[in-house]
Design a protein that fits this description.
The protein is mainly alpha-helical and about 325 residues long. It contains 18 helices and no strands. The protein has helices spanning about 5-20, 25-40, 45-55, 60-70, 75-85, 95-105, 110-125, 130-145, 150-165, 170-185, 185-200, 205-220, 225-235, 240-260, 260-275, 280-295, 300-310, 315-330.
């Protein structure tokens, strides 16, 4: 691991896990494999190994649950947070896990269960500074936003801003207020709020999403260079969530195309294909490579690209590919 040879380290730890008769050594190998797969970007495999290591290391269970939570696999995340609550002797993990279960209920529209869970949490756990209270208010506001109850959501978010401005939920409240402004068509107000958020909290967890939202606003206003700057900020952020990076790269490609920067668009498209080969949009991106070759007047390369894709693409793409091939010959 110290040399950075993750794939060789993976093979060694897999061999230890498969052959060792020392249970502690096996469980430690599972934990190391969780770290390795996390570094390789395979979140589901990483979570699987952390979960297997969880019988001796409660922090491993937390890591597994958090990965599922960020992947929006809330069912698996909830199972692990419940397991942590039932088994851990680490007091600090109990309020964290209980709070996550409340958040999951808000995110999966279990509003009654979430409200009850938030009330029980206030009864069962101390909350100095209102850190968890603020988080629950924001989660409830986001539930209301999904159902377009913007006035009620706005009141909750203003409450967070006025009473809990020193909690981690505060930047998130600013982000959600900006999203309400977008939803009601006030792009100028949303732009102002997002720029304020990024100026005050450039390293907050909400910053990645703020850049995406601001990029989308600039794109809608046809300020494509400003849009590209914000999408690029997410793409270049080594700590950005995988899903945010995919979205940012797709939007960056569109922004570059809109200002005729086809070389830049082609470069990002190729990198997207390399970074996210399992993406649902991977065939569209591969076709996009051919289209960009055409825009750059590399007709031979475009033709080879389209012909090769027509050999492996499914039926849904054949008409589109034959159109592009025919257009080059014409």
């Amino acid at each position: 691991l110290k040399t950075g040879d993750l794939r060789n380290a993976r093979e060694l730890f897999q061999e230890v896990a498969a052959t060792s008769t020392d249970s502690a050594q096996v469980l430690d190998s599972f934990y190391q494999l969780g770290d390795i797969y996390a570094s390789l970007g395979d979140r589901r495999m990483s979570a699987s190994f952390y979960e297997r290591a969880g019988s001796y290391n409660p922090q491993a269970l937390v890591k597994a649950a958090d990965i599922y939570f960020r992947m929006k696999d809330y069912g698996e995340a909830a199972k692990l947070y419940q397991r942590i609550l039932a088994t851990t002797a680490v007091d600090s993990l109990k309020p964290f896990s209980a709070a996550r279960l409340v958040e999951i209920n808000y995110k999966t529209n279990g509003i009654r269960a979430a409200d009850l869970g938030a009330e029980n949490f206030r009864r069962d756990y101390p909350d100095p500074g209102g850190r968890y209270r603020a988080r629950f208010l924001v989660d409830r506001a986001e539930y209301l936003i999904r159902y377009k109850k913007y006035d009620e959501a706005g009141r909750l978010l203003r409450d967070v801003r006025s009473r809990y401005d020193r909690t981690p939920a505060y930047p998130r409240a600013l982000l959600d207020e900006a999203r309400i402004s977008v939803a009601i068509g006030n792009l100028d107000e949303a732009e102002k709020k997002l720029k304020s958020l990024l100026a005050k909290f450039p390293d907050a967890g909400a910053a990645q999403e703020a850049h995406l939202e601001l990029g989308n606003i600039y794109y809608a206003k046809q300020k494509y260079q400003d849009a590209a700057d914000n999408f690029r900020a997410v793409y270049l952020d080594s700590l950005a969530e995988k899903d945010f990076v995919q979205e940012a790269m797709s939007r960056l490609i569109s922004s570059y195309e809109s200002v005729g920067m086809y070389d830049g668009a082609l470069d990002i498209t190729r990198k997207f294909i390399k970074m996210f080969p399992e993406s649902k949009s991977i065939m569209d991106k591969r076709i996009q490579v051919g289209i960009l070759y055409e825009e750059l007047r590399y007709f031979d390369q475009a033709l080879v690209t389209f012909k090769n894709l027509s050999q492996e693409a499914g039926r849904d793409y054949q008409a589109e590919l034959h159109y592009y091939i025919g257009a080059i010959y014409d």
